[in-house]
Amino acid sequence: MEFNQVFPLVLCIFCFSSVDSRPSFFSDFQVLQKPHFRQLSEISLNPSPAPEAYPPTASSPAASSDDSAAIFDVLSYGAVGDGVTDDTLAFKMAWDDACHTDSGILFVPNHYSFMIQSTIFTGPCKNGLVFQIEGTIMPPDGPDSWPKNYSKRQWLVFYRISGMSMQGGGLIDGRGEKWWNLPCKPHKGVNGTTILGPCDSPVAIRFFVSSNLTVQGLRVRNSPQFHFRFDNCHDVNVYSLYIKSPSLSPNTDGIHIENSSDVRIHNSIVYNGDDCVSIGAGCHNVDIRNITCGPSHGISIGSLGKQNTKACVSNITVTDSLIKHSDNGVRIKTWQGGFGSVSKVTFNNIVMDTVRNPIIIDQYYCESKACKNQTSAVYVSDILYTNIKGTYDVRSPPMKLACSDSVPCTNLTISEVELYPAQGQKILDPYCWNAYGALESLTIPPVFCLLEGYPDPDSLPVNDVVDQC
Ligand SMILES: *[C@@H]1O[C@H](CO)[C@@H](O)[C@H](O)[C@H]1NC(C)=O
Ligand SMILES: *[C@@H]1O[C@H](CO)[C@@H](O)[C@H](O)[C@H]1NC(C)=O
Ligand SMILES: *[C@@H]1O[C@H](CO)[C@@H](O)[C@H](O)[C@H]1NC(C)=O
Ligand SMILES: *[C@@H]1O[C@H](CO)[C@@H](O)[C@H](O)[C@H]1NC(C)=O
Ligand SMILES: *[C@@H]1O[C@H](CO)[C@@H](O)[C@H](O)[C@H]1NC(C)=O
Ligand SMILES: *[C@@H]1O[C@H](CO)[C@@H](O)[C@H](O)[C@H]1NC(C)=O
Ligand SMILES: *[C@@H]1O[C@H](CO)[C@@H](O)[C@H](O)[C@H]1NC(C)=O
Ligand SMILES: *[C@@H]1O[C@H](CO)[C@@H](O)[C@H](O)[C@H]1NC(C)=O
């Protein structure tokens, strides 16, 4: 953030009636006392009464203790938390202070709902910053309430932050319904059509050009668009999130990562209307573990290569997960005409419950149904499917490996896959197109359509790929 104005600290005497009512979270931390002048970004506000320092308690560490943290409670900066008042300014001020303090804690207390506008929280910050959410945070309610001059593509953005943790037992409520009902959204127009018109909808939480992040424990619901987006980030830990949106809410991916590496997404539950987790171009070293998805569109790598772009994705593991009542299970989707590669992907120990397309590679991905076949494609290789069991929705075959005509998939390995029809006895045959690979064990249903060995090396863009990725 830019600093261009100077204000006295906004102080609040009414924020806490008693120390005892504060969550135990506070007990180990030093209480903030900063009666000095401070600088703020693009902010002007009326002076408020001074906050009282929390009285020291027996359990408080000595104020001089080096490893104690300072707490910056948004209420102390004038936030109201009635769900109606615009509390953006208080959050920005608390952010500025927490950001510039070692191990600062921006605290969002329980029993309040804070309405905040689209905001970019900018670093760099001091080490160990914590964004502790115990209450509810929400944006304005829908496109008509969104200020005209604010981005409609993102709500809360964290930019150039390193070493931050966003956590707590609170709720992030994206209030997406009015966005999903825009006539431009799929099937939302008159008679189920999509009508052209402004369609931008905000991603709820975006981390951009950031590293060493942990996001854990939060509940996030009803995002207007993706719930989380991490782009150009590295060292990202996402643990124990609970994400929930209606199954028909358009484009509400749970967690989307793009151009990011060393990402762990563990122990989370996602119900939504689009991909549970989606992995875009430029992602490497991603570990997805113990996720429950569904209803959703499953866990996707892609879509990649749209409009002849390059995509490089490698070393992705999805393991110990459950996918239920979803349009797809584990999917790799690429557009015709892209280039680059997807390689070294493992899908291991995944239970499917009534899933359409439990295992799918779709190199003909197309949103409009009017895409032409092209001669280049993102090259898919070294993909392992192992221990994938459960049931499939009989509207689609349980395995569909539709590789590019011009660039075959290579080294697909299938091992211990057992997929049964969720309804009836009818077993659908797996589908393969230009897919090279091997079975390591018998599968149910049996796969006879894989091409053995390797294709003619001249037909592979291998050397180009190595140069490209
Ligand atoms: C939008 O306009 C309001 C009112 O003029 C102003 O206070 C605010 O700073 C503007 N926000 C942005 C992001 O330009
Ligand atoms: C990551 O951030 C934590 C604090 O959140 C800090 O203790 C740790 O040193 C950081 N690690 C790196 C590699 O910067
Ligand atoms: C919607 O359907 C109704 C009844 O079938 C029809 O009269 C109307 O013209 C349709 N509207 C559009 C925009 O297609
Ligand atoms: C991807 O991230 C790297 C930094 O990790 C950056 O240099 C590059 O510009 C990013 N690419 C895109 C397309 O954003
Ligand atoms: C898996 O995640 C769930 C939450 O979705 C959690 O309750 C459970 O303890 C996790 N299991 C392991 C082995 O971590
Ligand atoms: C692959 O990613 C994992 C983390 O998911 C990492 O531990 C491992 O070192 C990576 N392998 C390579 C070859 O980079
Ligand atoms: C593209 O190629 C695939 C595989 O050969 C074929 O099934 C499909 O019909 C083609 N699509 C178009 C639009 O030509
Ligand atoms: C084929 O892929 C597997 C992982 O699925 C990998 O271990 C093996 O090295 C690959 N084989 C070749 C020849 O690259």
TrEMBL record:
One of its GO terms (molecular function) is hydrolase activity, hydrolyzing O-glycosyl compounds. InterPro entries: Glyco_hydro_28, PbH1, Pectin_lyas_fold, Pectin_lyase_fold/virulence. The keyword Signal applies. The keyword Acetylation does not apply. Pfam families: Glyco_hydro_28. Keywords: Cell wall, Cell wall biogenesis/degradation, Glycosidase, Hydrolase, Secreted, Signal. Belongs to the glycosyl hydrolase 28 family. Residues 1-21 form the signal peptide. It is found in: Secreted, Cell wall. Its main location: secreted. One of its GO terms (biological process) is cell wall organization. This is Polygalacturonase. The active site is at H297.
